[in-house]
Structure to design on (234 residues):
């Protein structure tokens, strides 16, 4: 029997799951090595091929080229990060302050992925009931980029400890454009084998089987082959 063309070979499947399992948020391990334009373009194409509500494609990609803009983003981060630290107390606060939560200056590329909330006009197919679907779509572009970058050996770090209004102003975004993700990209000395927040004792991965419910929130699945299979994935 011939293999249908929509079939992924075992090696292709392994590659995809490997990118998913080994994708990391990177802040500390960036190398200064430049990313070749054709590789960056490939990764941006992966982002651009994300699904989007009504094929709205609400994203734009702002490549930060000026060192002044970078410096202003670092200052923004410092300000917001200090405020964030105040939300914790005692040992938790110390642990928070010990975390490195951005690699803005160390990474060779900074990129902001935005969502143009007006793209496609006032009536976008599929967006009449849930307005935020444009933002959801943009997050999928971020994830596509993150996975493609991982397959290319490039680390990505998402920096969200930023004041949204200040960020919009630093990037001259019009009011209808929302800055969804400020990202740092670069080759890395290593990809950690688990999330840095887990390795540093901030928070552990939740057991998958506890997150799969039956019919209603909080109702566990009855014992079934799926439950067994979920345990095996952990
Ligand atoms: C929307 C959003 C926003 C942020 C993040 C992620 C996402 C999805 N993450 C990264 C986050 O901490 C990380 O994804 C988790 O800890 C899981 O680790 P891995 O991504 O699996 O390495 C993140 N990390 C960081 O150091 N500073 C930040 O400001 C943010 N902000």
């Amino acid at each position: 029997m011939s293999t249908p063309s929509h079939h992924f070979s075992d090696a292709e499947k392994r590659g995809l799951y490997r990118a998913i399992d080994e994708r990391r948020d990177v802040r500390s391990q960036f190398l200064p090595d430049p990313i070749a334009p054709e590789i960056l373009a490939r990764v941006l194409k992966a982002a651009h091929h994300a699904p989007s509500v009504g094929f709205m494609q609400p994203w734009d990609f702002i490549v930060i080229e000026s060192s002044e803009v970078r410096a202003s983003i670092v200052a923004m981060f410092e300000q917001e990060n200090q405020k964030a630290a105040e939300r914790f107390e005692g040992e938790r606060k110390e642990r928070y302050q010990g975390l490195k939560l951005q690699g803005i200056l160390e990474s060779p590329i900074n990129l902001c992925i935005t969502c143009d909330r007006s793209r496609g006009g006032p009536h976008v197919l599929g967006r009449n009931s849930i307005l935020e679907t444009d933002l959801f779509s943009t997050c999928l572009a971020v994830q596509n980029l993150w996975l493609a970058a991982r397959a290319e050996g490039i680390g990505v770090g998402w920096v969200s400890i930023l004041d949204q209004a200040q960020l919009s102003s630093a990037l001259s975004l019009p009011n209808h454009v929302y800055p969804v993700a400020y990202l740092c990209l670069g080759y890395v000395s290593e990809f950690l084998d688990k999330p840095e927040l887990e390795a540093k004792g901030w928070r552990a991965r939740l057991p998958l089987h506890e997150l799969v419910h039956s019919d209603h929130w909080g109702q566990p699945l009855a014992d079934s082959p799926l439950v067994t299979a979920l345990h095996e994935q952990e």
